[in-house]
Amino acid sequence: MVSPPPPRGRAAQSSALSTRFALPGREADGDWLDAMEDVDGGPPPLRTTVTEEAARKIISRNKSPDVPFDRSINAYRGCEHGCIYCYARPTHAYLDLSPGLDFESRLFAKPEAAKLLRRELGARGYSPAPIAMGTNTDPYQPIEARYRLTRQILEVCLETRHPVTITTKSDRILHDLDLLAELARHRLTAVAISVTSLDARLSRSLEPRAASPAKRLDAIEKLSAAGVPVWVNVSPIVPAITEEWIERILEAAAARGVRGASWIMLRLPHEVAPLFREWLAAHFPDRADKVMHIVQSLRGGADYQSDFFTRMKPQGVWADLIRARFRIAKARLGLGDHRADLDIAQFRPPRRDGQMTLF
User: Fold this and answer.
1) Could you tell me the maximum CA-CA distance found in the chain, to the nearest angstrom?
2) Cis status of the peptide bond prior to 236, with omega within 30 of 0
3) What is d(CA 216, CA 173) in angstroms, rounded to the nearest whole number?
């Protein structure tokens, strides 16, 4: 049986469930296929649905020794940007949903996020440290326009003078430029904008519903002009597909005022690897084998290595070459490392009734 083509505007080629947790396999049944309306010779658009989640807390803690933060906030589960390489895709398997198309279209929002944050910041004995946003799913994905959860969280951070960092690939962040500029004035925020290439068509394939590269660069320029510390994150670098853009991305970002730059090599944990292979076969059949051969050469012969530090530090000649290119380009452009020196001394916990403490 030939599988139907994926819905237009989505990156994943399938919606099969993960078997990692011994869940039963799932495929579209015949009735669904019969009901498909042919649109320009392909399937109809896949509609995005959002389920509101009653979370018990909003700050997630981690003890990973190779991650530069110990707490984060993800007000959304799943991400409509649909980046095929997203390492967060496997989290949908915990919900008995597909890390493929479900991750892109069956989203979850935590409408009480700001209320939960206020309660947790006000807990007796809370010790402040920068909260990272955008570590799992993008805080400025399209449903943020409806829910405004990221903005509400930033409002709490500004009120309590709590430091917060943001990583995004959306120019929607400019909707909160007023809050970010004020947070920056108090040394309470820093932003990283992810840019994978400067080719809009390639970006649309890799990251179907993310902002175009031009819009991301525009966001960098406007954030910088407003005094917000901003870095460019060339992430992920996909061998033989996006690596040619490294120097040009850094040049374009430097011209728009970034303070520094970082990079991450493509990571393919769990269900991401087969999804990425499907994407390669659909979009780059001429070099699919080459890409995976390079990926495996970076990861000790495997698609991925999950050990601490190893997962973040690809090895081999190819990795060394990219490190050298990145180091040389940064030095030439006067770019520093991606480090944010944020102030935790200003933190003032809220009271549970929403009022600030006076002493």
Assistant:
1) 70
2) yes
3) 10
Hey, what amino acid is at 21? F
| DSSP state for residue 118 in the 8-state scheme | H
Q: Closest by alpha carbon to 75, among 24, 148, 184?
A: 148
**Closest to 20 measured CA to CA, from 101, 95, 104:** 95
Give dist(CA 209, CA 269) in Å, integer.
Answer: 22
Distance from chain centroid for Cα 358: 38
What number is the average pLDDT over the span 108-112? Answer: 98
The pLDDT of residue 24 is 47
pLDDT at residue 186 tops 80: yes
pLDDT of residue 10: 62
Q: Residue 25 to residues 176, 275, 358: CA-CA distances in angstroms?
A: 42, 15, 57
Residue 309 contacts by C-beta under 8 Å, 6 or more apart in sequence?
Answer: 65, 66
Strands lying side by side in the sheet with 49-52: 49-52, 106-109, 76-77
What are the residues facing 189 on neighbouring strands? 164
Q: What is the pLDDT of residues 302-351, one digit of tens each?
A: 998 887 777 778 999 999 999 999 999 999 999 998 777 899 999 999 97
Per DSSP, the three-state class of 173 is helix
| Start-to-end Cα distance in the chain | 70
Q: What per-residue confidence (pLDDT) applies to 17? A: 54
Helices (H), the chain: 30-35, 101-105, 113-121, 144-147, 149-160, 177-185, 200-206, 213-225, 246-255, 272-283, 288-298, 317-333
| pLDDT score of 28 | 40
Enter the DSSP assignment of 42.
B
Verdict on whether the full-model pTM lies above 0.85: yes
Read off the amino acid at residue 339. Answer: R
From CA 163, how far away is CA 170, in angstroms rounded? 21
The proportion of the chain whose per-residue pLDDT surpasses 70, expressed as a percent, equals 85
Instruction: List beta partners, residue 109.
Output: 52, 76
What are the backbone angles phi and psi of residue 340, rounded to the nearest 5°?
Answer: -115, 120
